[in-house]
């Protein structure tokens, strides 16, 4: 499920079945020309990955809107803000909270987050709609689904 | 000799030309309304909605296999369902069956024999929903309706699939 009208109407009726949340953590920056293309590509790649992921387990999983932050920011601050999101999410009966990100910096503060961090290595910068990339995304979706199911 | 040739009178000449030109104009006016009137017929015969999913009928066995394909799109707008999947197999009569993998409970993706405890059934990983091979939901599990069936057509031994059609609950 995504945070959109139809899904949320369904969510309110079927709450007891949806016990897992995924929060995408996505860095944003406009300051460095040479990294703009790479960073924005990773944003698109993660969007593609999450769309497929959400489809696979949509009946038990809520995909929240993306959590964006400035790439060069100090994660000590972000960590606090992110935990506020989680506190809010936990007003509902969710049992499992996952973060998905390509940004390895989160690994360091992982233990201070109220959820499980899933870090993925970024995708090679290629045409997103090429068959190679789609195959790769499907492979990763299968593996990450397995991982999430092992928590259920 | 030349006076023996049939002469076309001025009146005849004008009649012929006017009829000819008038005819063309009338035809030109009529083409678009006629085209519009018969257009739905043309569309139906060409089956524009069915997509070649890249599987030959000979490769389909009685064991369900998952096939993925992408719906033709104008651009890469990822939000709008770029890919579709189906479980495809031949039933006892040898007819091809293409089931939608979307669980009718809350929309997870089911897999064939996805649980070791339940062989010969489709299994939904989210809430242990189960379906028989023909897509009928197993009573007592969360789903209340059978898996949807894709519109299908076989042309030159290649499978074409359209939209999933949902079925009434068992």
What do these coordinates show?
The complex is a heterodimer of chains A (152) and B (170). By secondary structure, chain A is α/β, with parallel strands linked by helices. Chain A has one domain: 3-Layer(aba) Sandwich (Rossmann fold), CATH 3.40.50. Chain A contains 5 helices and 5 strands; from the N terminus they run H-E-H-E-E-H-E-H-E-H. Chain A has helices at 5-14, 33-56, 75-89, 106-109, 131-151, and strands spanning 20-28, 61-63, 67-70, 96-101, 116-119. The radius of gyration of chain A is 16 Å and the shape is globular. The two termini of chain A are 17 Å apart. In chain A, 24% of the residues are buried. Chain B is of the alpha+beta class and 170 residues long. Chain B folds into 2 domains: 2-46; 51-165, Rieske Iron-sulfur Protein, CATH 2.102.10. Chain B contains 1 helix and 9 strands. In chain B, the strands form 3 sheets. A 3-stranded antiparallel β-sheet of chain B has the order 1-9-8, with no helix packed on it. A 3-stranded antiparallel β-sheet of chain B has the order 2-3-4, with no helix packed on it. Chain B is rod-shaped, with a radius of gyration of 29 Å. Chain B starts with 9 loop residues before the first helix and ends in a 5-residue tail after the last strand. Mean pLDDT of chain B is 82; it is low at 44-48. At the A-B interface, helix 2 and helix 5 of A face loops of B.
Number of beta-strand segments of chain A: 5
User: Helical proportion of chain A?
Assistant: 40-55%
C-alpha Rg of chain A (nearest Å): 16 Å
Unreliable segments of 5+ consecutive residues of chain A? none
Mean pLDDT level of chain B: 82
Known CATH architecture of the largest domain in chain B? 3-layer Sandwich
Do you know the CATH topology of the largest domain in chain B? Rieske Iron-sulfur Protein
Order of helices and strands of chain A: HEHEEHEHEH
Q: Alpha-carbon distance between the termini of chain A? A: 17 Å
Count of spatially separate domains of chain A: 1
- Round the mean pLDDT of chain A to the nearest integer and report it: 88
In one word, what is the shape of chain B?
Answer: rod-shaped
Structural class of chain B: alpha+beta
Helical content of chain B, roughly? 10-25%
Tell me the series of helices and strands of chain B, N- to C-terminal: HEEEEEEEEE
Q: What oligomeric arrangement do these chains adopt?
A: heterodimer
Structural class of chain A: alpha/beta
